[in-house]
Amino acid sequence: MLKPSLEKALNEQINKELFSAYLYQAMSAYASRTGLPGVANWMDIQAKEEMDHARKFYNYIDEQGAKITLMAIDQPDTDFESVNVMFAKTLEHEQFITKSIYDLVTLARDEHDYATEIFLQWYITEQVEEESNVNELIDKLNLIGKEGNGIFMFDKELTTRVYTPMVFGE
Asked: Is the full-model pTM beyond 0.70?
């Protein structure tokens, strides 16, 4: 059974994960309309993964017999100065999510909720991967520079990313 403070915080995290999906879907739409199908693909897959992350929280709250409370999702930005700015905002957002997960771990420890702390370890590992992936893409964009000739190869590379749905119940 979740304590009220954790129930509230985990429900808020669902909202953050759903906002993440919404943000990345907006970024996908921006990339698509600016002629970057690979970037659109990468962001679309990011959105799907964030939906999986929200579902994982949803299922955990439900399994703990607590109340799931879905909240309004804020509207994300829909225009970006450039692909470089978009990925910088992606990293900034992932760092925000990482901090939020760390805060949840701290709360679980403070509440002596060891099951929730263990549950959150998956997210810690996931956030390390998320930030690393985005940093790698930012490094490539920095190598390309602002001229744009390399952006087409960068975009082509991102078309190869494939969505692998999470398997729930494992």
From this structure: yes
